[in-house]
Amino acid sequence: MNLVQDHPAAPGGPGAADGGEGVLRLAGVTVRFGGITAVDQVALDVPSGQVVGLIGPNGAGKTTLLDAVSGLRTPSRGRILLDGADVTARSASWLSRHGVRRTFQRHQAFGWLTVRQNVLVPLEWRTRGRGLLGDVLGLPHRRRETGALLERVDEVIELCGLSEVRDVNAATLPIGQLRLLEFARAIVDSPRLLLLDEPTSGLGRRETELLSEVLLGLVQRHELTVILVEHDIDFVMGLVDRVVCLVQGAVLADGTPAEIRRNPEVIAAYLGS
Ligand SMILES: Nc1ncnc2c1ncn2[C@@H]1O[C@H](COP(=O)(O)OP(=O)(O)O)[C@@H](O)[C@H]1O
Ligand SMILES: [Mg+2]
């Protein structure tokens, strides 16, 4: 089953407002927590199919920026455009149904559900409230209808190397597999814009390689746009087209991996010598 591009487009249609070609456009996005400015007037245009690495020291505002783009936090100022439509005030659930999916720095898997049930949850909305999870947990006559979605779930589970633990409760998984499960949940509904918050943290070397392969495969096959927050600089640099370095909430540098590696300001603020 191909769910790619099967998300309702943001109202206004692709590129409707502002004539933007980019999937994502941030204009002067600012997020404040009381007196702290966590994200400071960030302007960013991300074209379709681009993989952007977002780096910077702890507290730079990387997670908060992903929170704003995914609708978990409304910016204090500025605008967020998706396919040219203003989505600044849209909720996280609205954005996820329109193809914006993410992972969290700390995994959000449901421990009492199996791996397979966990990966089904993000597809739940496609059953138009009939309750996909209910179908899988019981109700045999519903299973036919959900067959295609289940096929997609199993495909993603296999892609993420989780087939052997498919029917295991998530709570019993080691951290590496939990992180891969989190990733599986983020990609199962074939997002257009994928936001990953430190996806390799807790992964072993082999798991990191697997993640990198899966991500590259997705990007090459589809018009998937990715923003990747990551501390593992080798992982970032090997995977992305472009790197944005955030310091104290603001964009310090924006360029190719090679440019960023030799940027003296980035070296001083983050990379070290
Ligand atoms: N919920 C919150 N309430 C208050 N301050 C916050 C909150 N979340 C983040 N911050 C602050 O915002 C800044 C950016 O944090 P964060 O986005 O988590 O950075 P990063 O992901 O780059 O490490 C930090 O100074 C952090 O302390
Ligand atoms: Mg963070």
Automatic annotation (TrEMBL):
Residue ranges of domain ABC transporter in the record: 24-273
GO MF term set: ATP binding
Alphabetically ordered keywords of this record: ATP-binding, Nucleotide-binding, Transport
Domain of life: Bacteria
Name this protein carries in UniProt: ABC transporter ATP-binding protein
Gene3D superfamilies: P-loop containing nucleotide triphosphate hydrolases
SMART domains reported for this sequence: AAA
PROSITE patterns in the record: ABC_TRANSPORTER_2
Keyword Cell membrane: no
Entry keyword Nucleotide-binding: yes
Pfam family name, one: BCA_ABC_TP_C
